[in-house]
Amino acid sequence: MTDNIIYESPDHGETVFARMVGTLERTIVSQTPQAHYLARWHEWKEILRASEDNVTLADLIKKVEEVYALVKEHP
User: Fold this and answer.
1) What is the pLDDT of residue 2?
2) 45, 69: one domain
3) pLDDT (tens digit, 9 = 90+) per residue, 12-71?
């Protein structure tokens, strides 16, 4: 018996997911650079929100901001 795979795209082809029939777990098959950038942007928003209650994340974000300031200052 061949497993049936469903391909889905919630954003009109920008991101394509695959999942097995009867399951909800899906994996990314393809994603345009724009969709990938947007997904990362949303993920960073969630990381920043989580850092409000997580000291480790807050400390790491502060370090990233310091490195960014140095890189920005001296490209």
Assistant:
1) 59
2) yes
3) 999 999 999 999 999 999 999 999 999 999 999 999 999 999 999 999 999 999 999 999
Domain identity same for 26 and 46: no
Report whether 39 contacts 51 (CB < 8 A).
Answer: no
How far from 22 is each of 26, 45, 75, CA to CA, in Å?
11, 32, 51
Q: Which domain, by its residues, includes 46?
A: 32-75
DSSP sequence for the chain: -PPPEEEE-TTTTSEEEEEETT---EEEEEE-HHHHHHHHHHHHHHHHHHHTS-HHHHHHHHHHHHHHHHHHH--
Residues in the chain: 75
